[in-house]
Amino acid sequence: MITQMKKYTFLVFHREYEAFLEQLRELGVVHITEKAAGMAEDKQLQELLAEADKIRKVLAQGAPDQLLQEKAALEQRIAATQKEANKMAVWGDFSAECIADLKQAGYTLRYFTCPKKAFQEEWGIVVAEQGATLYFVQVNNAGEAPEQCQEQYLNEKSAADLQKDVEGLNGLLVAQNVRIELWAKENMPALEAQLIELNQQIDWQRVTLNTGSEADGSLKILEGFCPVDQEAALNEMLDKQDVYFHAEDPTAEDNTPIKLRNNRFTKLFESLTGMYGWPNYGEFDPTPILAPFFLLFFAMCMGDCGYGIMLIIIGLMISKKKLNIAMFEGLGPIITVLGVGTMVVGFFLGTFMGIDLYAAEWVPQALKNVMIKGNIEVAGSSYDIQMVLALCIGVFHICLAMVVKAICYTKQTGFKENIATWGWTLLIVGGLLIAILGMTVLPQEVFKWTLIAVAGISALGIYIFNTPGRNPLINIGAGLWETYNMATGILGDVLSYIRLYALGLAGGMLGAAFNNLGLMVMGGSVEGATWQWLPFVLILVLGHVLNLAMSALGAFVHPLRLSFVEYFKNAGYEGKGTLYQPFKK
Questions:
Q1: Is 159:88 a contact under the CB 8 Å cutoff?
Q2: Cβ-proximal residues to 566 (8 Å cutoff; 6+ apart), any chain
Q3: Residues 281, 5: contact at Cβ < 8 Å?
Q4: Where are the domains positioned within the chain?
Q5: How far apart are CA 260 and CA 273, in angstroms?
Q6: In 268-331, which ranges are continuous DSSP H helix?
Q7: pLDDT for 62-91, tens place per residue?
Q8: pLDDT tens digits, one per residue of 212-253
């Protein structure tokens, strides 16, 4: 839900304005309206923003650029030296001093590689052999090597000497890492405090730039928004000041910020809404609907009860700081919730760590009876019931989006401006409901006339009254074009939900494949020899961890796509709102 806001206009004498801002920031409940056209050109603000960006970059990197560049240079030298050592290893161990002495004594050494079959003994001395390639040394140009030989230019140092260089460079790298850690320990807290101070200066500068002036600068005018649940505290503070203020309800023209108010479960999914964009003040908060459907979609894409239990364990460990993974910091609760959903849905889908529970003899029949397994007859053809379920969920999801769109658009602009929207909603949602009732309880005659009535009313809204006051012929043309878009769009949207079935099926099949590989190592039975248990366990652990990671990635991306594309598009959600960010310390 979106918290109701009040729009405030403050009129303050210029001598008291700074003290007023200090108290306003101390209270920390007013979101200041940004409307100054010259903010991008303000030199002081841009300098503060640039300095804050530099500090954020250092905090994100963990060290300044110079230390990181020195580390990167060392890593490049190590990689190049190691590559050279690997190249020199085939030529064996030799002394650079001995090579120099031979050269001084008049012996010239050249190094070649050639195919083993083409080599002739008079060309030189064979040093090494790798597969079908020979490595040989030629002394004083003893016979010209044929074209298929390639001359090699060796490093002055042997592989052993180069490896010693690598060890020395690794020591320098360790020392550099210690320098970085010490720098971070000594400087990070101060940088974090400096960033906080800079952010407060930036906020202050923005408020100053968004302040209007009247009466030759004697009066300062400021506008902002306050949540109604914190209005009493703001009014109490203003009553103690010599400040004139006016409070009113925001209008559609105001860029009113939004503050979401949701329960503990829904709040976990607010970040997903933010990934797409925050709602406008006049829009609806999609999070209460996004949350349960995203949970369901994620669980269906994972489709494995065992993986759900693993996610619960991982989520709890992250929440209790027993498992520290930077990219998952703060996500322990939502991972746990997603794990619970996956465990429950995975059981009903009948899969546990790649094992088909429905086919397992040790699973009681009473549990199998509640699992969603088998085929279902639809229009004379047989389909997997899980696939049909995914499509049915998709139809319901899109119908819900259309109902939400019709209600919210009507609330924003009135019924007259949304007759076509209601026409499509009545035709699709109402038509589906009547079709279901007709197949269950409605008499045939009642079903027929009800369907005709719904189709007729919908056609009037879609083709005749879609834009009241406009030429009916133009309305008909616009309705036909919209019909084409809806017919192709809705069909594609519904078919997109097959991925809920396909991803769950793919993850289950891959998990079963790892189980079969493990059993192959055991000779097809868990009663194999003792030595066979180690590869058996390794295959299962590594295989299922890999499958869990791959499945979780797909189970996050695809439900997000269904929410952002199929649902938000049919719900008419724009997500161009501004998040409530009060002026505070």
A1: yes
A2: 394, 397, 398, 401, 493, 496, 497
A3: yes
A4: 94-157, 287-373+503-571, 387-496
A5: 11
A6: 270-276, 287-302, 305-319
A7: 888 899 999 999 999 999 999 989 888 888
A8: 877 777 888 889 999 998 999 998 888 887 788 888 998 888
